[in-house]
Design a protein that fits this description.
alpha/beta, Multidrug-efflux Transporter Regulator, Chain: A, Domain 2, Rossmann fold, CheY-like_superfamily, DNA-bd_dom_put_sf, about 190 residues, three-stranded antiparallel β-sheet, 8 strands, five-stranded parallel β-sheet
Length: about 190
């Protein structure tokens, strides 16, 4: 998770450090204290939300990436690379996670607009990733496309857990591109 110190926030906002500490203590700015010395830290997303709420400019260095990002979660690298080729041809940047835990880390570090998700993975399966992601407030806007070789009832279960769309393997490049374009418009 990318965080900022109180001092960094003071510099971004051109205010005194004590002002930032008051914002944190009053709850206007969401943050947390590090164990031990108790230094404050604020998640970048929480800081941006604070700036937007108070009609303050967002520093260029903290603005989201210009090109929409797609996180591809699949333990089979040939399949992940195939999805990546389709996404890149459609003009989107991509990241690949080969497991559920890695996907969770990437979701917290980056802000993808779409995640493609395989259901059958060792360790943390796609259902667990789906459930975890839908419980995260910061991921409410994330569109999830499940791409799996499992049967229709498995795909239906994925939709019940919060998938926005499902495709069966092998998937149609055209269908996948249409979903990417559709979800990027939202």
């Amino acid at each position: 998770m990318k965080t900022l110190t109180s001092g960094e926030i003071a510099e971004y906002c051109d205010v005194n450090l004590r002002t930032v500490i008051r914002w944190l203590e009053s709850g206007k700015l969401k943050g947390f204290k590090l164990p031990g010395r108790g230094n404050n830290r604020v998640l970048i997303n929480d800081f941006i939300e604070f700036l937007e709420r108070h009609n303050m400019p967002i520093p260029e260095s903290l603005k989201p990436e210009a090109s929409p990002l797609i996180l591809i979660v699949d333990d089979e690298m040939p399949v992940a690379k195939s999805i990546q080729r389709v996404a890149r041809r459609a003009g989107y940047d991509t990241l690949i996670a080969t497991g559920g835990f890695q996907a969770g880390m990437m979701l917290s570090q980056h802000s993808p607009r779409i995640m493609t998700l395989d259901l059958s993975m060792p360790g943390m399966d796609g259902y667990s990733v789906l459930q975890y992601t839908r419980e995260q407030e910061s991921q409410k806007g994330l569109k999830i496309i499940v791409i799996s070789a499992l049967d229709d009832s498995s795909l239906e279960k994925a939709k019940e857990l919060g998938a926005d769309a499902t495709l069966t393997k092998p998937f149609s490049n055209h269908d996948l591109t249409q979903l990417f374009d559709q979800f990027m418009q939202v």
